[in-house]
Design a protein that fits this description.
Layout lengths: L11 E6 L7 H8 L5 E8 L6 E9 L2 H11 L3 E2 L2 E2 L1 E4 L4 H5 L4 E5 L7 H8 L5 E8 L5 E9 L2 H11 L3 E2 L2 E2 L1 E4 L17 E5 L7 H8 L5 E8 L5 E9 L2 H11 L3 E2 L2 E2 L1 E4 L3 H23 L3 E5 L7 H8 L5 E8 L5 E9 L2 H11 L3 E2 L2 E2 L1 E4 L3 H20 L18 H8 L37 H11 L7 H4 L7 H11 L1
Antiparallel strand pairs: 1-3, 1-6, 2-3, 4-5, 7-9, 7-12, 8-9, 10-11, 13-15, 13-18, 14-15, 16-17, 19-21, 19-24, 20-21, 22-23
Helix pairs in contact: 13-15
InterPro entries: Nucleotide-bd_a/b_plait_sf (IPR012677), PABP_1234 (IPR006515), RBD_domain_sf (IPR035979), RRM_dom (IPR000504), RRM_euk-type (IPR003954)
Keywords: Cytoplasm, Nucleus, Repeat, RNA-binding
GO molecular function: RNA binding
């Protein structure tokens, strides 16, 4: 939508963030319609779902109206949510550089965007201020302030870091993008401590008194739930790494209240995830080494077979440590599972005893369990010779009695499309045990298929294409149904 410009001046565009998801362009237009040079508005939406991305743009024909809109509309309410109104920065590098951006944490719950703006504006021109909140609008205790210049940001950090705002000591520092944050190692310097096993009646004042003898504390916070009750853990951030180290060594394991404290270096989420991942991998490798040669993979299991039945079946071979039948999300068996024995000798006995035996009307396939990477490597080695033959001359895989020059293009097409198959059978090592191998006899004629000019032969081939076996092998050789297009082509060429 557009409005005729009444003021001839430089055009200006504003960014409007933190919009309610139900706000439409019409409603955004109505919110800014008091400014005469308003030219257009836009609410940005997802290209696929068309849902609001919760931000938009408001364009003016007059820069003075844009300046006034920032003063009037910034931190105002629309649909019950506070809007952030600031200058639009089209250059992505300028937005992502972090220049003039300040990170603030340990904020009191009563501090909102407007209060944060007022707190920092004395140090320079504030372009944007934001307190991060939950879905219900409650503050998460940290936020961001964007200054016009880097000098203003440095001045705010120097003057406000460690100061007390509404009975809480805040931390103010330069904003660092997530991708640029360095995860510290165990031997790196640190100032922030994580403390748990706190009594629920421990206050921040008591915690301050307990940890302040070790050095200057920049910020301190006890984690609380939605009702304002303590969660039993807290964070203490010192000014110097040496002070944090001394506090950790002295207070870890000491009694405070009715419990012994756990004090350690506070870790970022990425670092915690990495540590947990490494621990999981170590346990996984240890388990693999422990069960190597003892864990069996079973497939071709009937859907009605339970883990209890498998345990009973294999218990005669030794002590079973675990049995698992793999099932889908509905609880239906996937037809395979695992049986793990206490040692490799028992597992070998189970393979030699039950490999190929009939169980619930199906022959069991048993093999030693392998990691996914090992299976992939083994399959590549197994199928490498066959792939090499397929990539080479096609005459090597044409059935006997058919010369390659009869099928210069058709055979290669059939091989690529999978029309020629080798007879399927059971893998090596399968025993009879009430299960006989399928037998198929293939009779191949020594007379190749030769394109015939005789009309009767062409008609006979036409009947063969209709799956009527009425032609003698002396005239046609072995009929291959997949060559129907080839027969039709030869009929056309010899007509």
């Amino acid at each position: 939508m557009a409005v005729p410009a009444t003021v001839a001046a430089t055009k200006a565009s504003l960014y409007v963030g933190d919009l309610h998801p139900d706000v439409t362009e019409t409603q955004l237009f109505l919110a800014f319609q008091e400014f005469e040079s308003l030219s257009s508005v836009r609410v940005c939406r997802d290209s696929m779902t068309k849902t609001s991305l919760r931000y938009g743009y408001v364009n003016f024909m007059s820069q003075q109206d844009a300046i006034r809109a920032i003063k009037v509309k910034n931190n105002s309410y629309l649909f019950g949510k506070v809007m952030r109104v600031m200058w639009s920065h089209r250059d992505p590098n300028a937005r992502k550089s972090g220049r003039g951006n300040v990170f603030v944490k340990n904020l009191a719950e009563s501090i909102d965007n407007a209060v944060l703006h007022d707190l920092f504006q004395k140090y320079g021109n504030v372009l944007s201020s934001k307190v991060v909140v939950y879905d219900d609008g409650k503050s998460k205790g940290y936020g961001f302030v964007q200054f016009e210049s880097e000098e203003s940001a440095n001045s705010a950090i120097e003057n406000l870091n460690g100061s007390t705002v509404r009975d809480k000591q805040i931390y103010v520092g330069k904003f660092v993008r997530k991708g640029d944050r360095i995860v510290p190692g165990n031997d790196s310097k640190y100032t922030n401590l994580y403390i748990k096993n706190l009594d629920l009646d421990i206050t921040e004042a008591l915690l301050q008194e307990k940890f302040s003898p070790f050095g200057k504390i920049i910020s301190l916070a006890i984690a609380k739930d939605d009702n304002g009750l303590s969660k039993g853990f807290a964070f203490v951030n010192y000014d110097r790494p040496d002070d944090a180290r001394k506090a950790m060594e002295a207070m870890n394991g000491s009694q405070f209240g009715s419990k012994n404290l756990y004090v350690a270096r506070a870790q970022k989420k990425a670092e915690r995830e990495q540590i947990l991942h490494n621990q999981f991998e170590e346990k996984r490798k240890e388990q693999i080494l422990k069960s190597k040669g003892s864990n069996l993979y079973l497939k071709n299991i009937d859907d009605t077979v339970s883990e209890k039945e498998l345990r009973v079946l294999f218990s005669s071979c030794g002590r079973i440590t675990s049995v698992k039948v793999m099932r889908n999300e509905k609880g239906i068996s996937k037809g395979f599972g695992f049986v793990c024995f206490s040692n490799p000798e028992e597992a070998n006995k189970a393979v030699s005893t039950f490999y190929g035996c009939m169980f619930h009307g199906k022959p069991l396939y048993i093999a030693f369990a392998q990691r996914k990477e090992d299976r992939k490597t083994q399959l590549k080695l197994h199928y490498a010779p066959q792939q090499a033959r397929l990539n080479g001359s096609s005459a090597a895989v044409v059935p006997g009695g058919f010369s390659s020059f009869f099928y210069p293009n058709v055979t290669s097409h059939m091989l690529q499309s999978g029309l020629l198959y080798q007879p399927l059978g059971l893998g090596p090592g399968w025993r009879a045990n009430d299960f006989t191998l399928p037998t198929r006899s293939f009779q191949q004629s020594q007379v190749p298929i030769v394109p015939s000019t005789n009309r009767n032969h062409r008609l006979n081939r036409g009947r063969m294409n209709g799956h009527t076996n009425t032609v003698g092998k002396a005239h046609t050789g072995v009929y291959i149904p997949q060559l129907q297009q080839y027969y039709q082509m030869m009929d056309y060429l010899t007509a």
